[in-house]
Amino acid sequence: MLIRWGLATLSLSGLISIASAQTHTHVRADDHAPIGVMADHYHEAGEFMFSYRYMSMSMQGNLDGGTALAPATIATTIPNRFFGRPMQPPTLRVVPTEMTMAMQMLGLMYAPSDSVTLMAMLNHVDKEMDHVTFQGPAGTTELGRFTTRASGLGDASVSALIRVTESESSRLHLTIGISIPTGDTDAAGTVLAPTGMQPTLRLPYPMQLGSGSYDVLAGLTYSRFHGDWSWGSQWRSSIRTGDNDEGYTFGDEHRLTAWYSRVIGEGWSWSTRLEYYDRDNVDGIDAAIVAPVQTADPLNQAATRFDAGLGLNWASDSGHRVALEMLIPLEQDLAGPQLETDRQLTLGYQYSF
Ligand SMILES: [Cu+2]
User: pTM to 2 decimals?
Assistant: First the structure.
């Protein structure tokens, strides 16, 4: 009995010492920012990281500025910029009601030195938009509904993450990169026109898969670590460098975000985050995009949004990470009418070696 007790104590103290040794060397689940933040961390010389993210965004209902507009209101009151051309009614007789975008992102990071980490990313995009078509040039009679889809490779990017300063409890790095226009800007789909015809047309701006231009990617990220919590902040912009083959430029995009993460046991952390997002209108026009629908107007593309997020992170000592984050808009101001964002979900897996 005494021997058994002694053995139990021995194995228990053994377990405790193993456990405490583990907490000393254990990787922090909050070492990376919430998974919706891109280019949030760099690596040490010689390290590689592979990552996969699945991102989905849902939009439903229309806003002008911050005010909701019903489809019938849009169809009878919002002027069509193409009115006067053949078959073009005076108001927007086709109204988007819902959109979902799913993006799959593959990433590879490699650090040739402690001060520089290189990152390459490749995306696959699936977009779907539901519409209601009103009959003829006036009135509120619905003619029918239709869905357009676009799917394929999105834009690719290569970036350098440059370490600026690092201390035991903080990190600051600069990101500079270029987005390569591998995504299509001529995706087409079959639509239901107010006349009842069903032509196949080039899809409007938000349904295209890429920007069509080389874009400069720039950012600055700061992270700070305390006992069992951490916080960070990041600025990130995508700046277009010129017209695409179709004769227009997508609006520049800017993001400013800050997060707070808390460790909740070995390998786990949760996070909360605020993000400010701003996008300009399309500059120029694609002569092949002509339709009595808000998405075909280059001046109905700008948006500012203030999102709040909640995330969960898991990390193992063997280099695996899994994380989930959901963002919900607190407020949005859209160059309307434009579809309103409901939520964004990001699920990610990362493996460092
Ligand atoms: Cu990495």
Answer: 0.89
